[in-house]
Amino acid sequence: MHRLIGAGFILVVCAGAADAADKPAAALDTAAIERLTGAKGTLDAKEGVFKVSVPRADIAVTVGGARMTPPLGLTAWAAFTKAGTHTMVMGDIVLLEDQVNPVMSAALDAGLDVTALHNHFFWDTPKVMFMHVGGMGDEAALATGIGKVFARLKETSGGKGEVLRADVDPAKTTLKPETIQAVLRYKGDLKDGVYKVVIGRSTKMGGHTVGKAMGVNTWAAFAGSDEKAIVDGDFAMLESELQPVLKAMRGGGIDVVAIHNHMTDDSPRILFLHYWGVGPTEALAKTLRAALDKTKHDPPAP
Predict the structure, then answer these.
(1) Nearest in space to 45 (alpha carbons), one of 22, 32, 27, 33
(2) DSSP letter string over 241-275?
């Protein structure tokens, strides 16, 4: 009897929850979203999603010789929906290479999350990158943030973005590894004009621990002089570390060139961020150190 009563009570509660879930959420203020984002949108009433779009008609892109138009995947967009008492936004921003990091900084500064950065095509000229963004919170704040992203997109169009260049030949490297090691607090190796530091992490796949030697690591490779060097590498992060690491890297002027996974079914999940920086070795190392401070990498060897 007690079980039947308990089961009946659970059914009533579940039914009540289902009734509450079936109630329509508060409507999105679509006019305000269009005004704050500076983009026109369409409403999917069935799914309760309002999507604003910015077709990249300003760029002339070919893929394998084929002329690309906005409907073929060159439209930036952001979709809004109600999530309980909050609003959720997800979007995909279409960018040329020189636009990626200025637009990324605009998104981060506006409180949005940047969740992926990658290509969608091969053989595209000029190269096109796609930056996925998201957020949850106040509807007006989210729409304002997307508006700042779209505004920076327009401001940097036509070659007005950011390109980090350096005339560096590893064969002529003169930088002092001690300077980098003192900042990073990890020791690397100098070979063929490149000073490389590799820092391990670990996760599990199929119940087996995989770590530094299997590719679960953060690395940085420096070449050039102490006055002007290049650094490139890969940052291994937990999902919860991604946004702090992005802010640290962009705050120090290092460009982010990709955000993606290298594995599947890993636990905890590890994301990888590829980067490129130009500047004095100490400044570059300090930016990397600031990003490392946001993570839980293996401690330096004694």
Answers:
(1) 27
(2) GHHHHHHHHHHTTPEEEEEEES-SSEES-EEEEEE
Q: Is the pLDDT of residue 94 over 60?
A: yes
The DSSP code for 240 is G
Asked if 93 and 120 count as a contact pair (C-beta separation under 8 A), the reply is: no
Q: Which long-range CB contacts under 8 A does 126-130 form with residues at least 24 apart?
A: 126/59, 126/61, 126/96, 126/97, 127/96, 127/97, 128/59, 128/61, 128/74, 128/94, 128/95, 128/96, 129/95, 129/96, 129/97, 129/100, 130/92, 130/93, 130/94, 130/95
User: Scanning the structure block, which residue is given the tokens 């009946």?
Assistant: 8
Dump pLDDT digits (tens) for 49-73: 999 999 999 999 999 999 999 999 9
The sheet carrying 113-118 orders its strands as 41-44, 49-55, 75-83, 86-96, 128-137, 113-118, 255-261, 270-279, 229-238, 217-224, 194-200, 189-191
Among residues 184, 161, 271, 281, the alpha carbon closest in space to that of 226 is found at 281
Cis peptide before 244 (omega within 30 of 0): no
Query: What's the pTM value of the predicted model, to 2 decimals?
Result: 0.90
pLDDT range class, residue 22, cuts 50, 70, 90: very low
Q: What is the pLDDT of residue 302?
A: 82
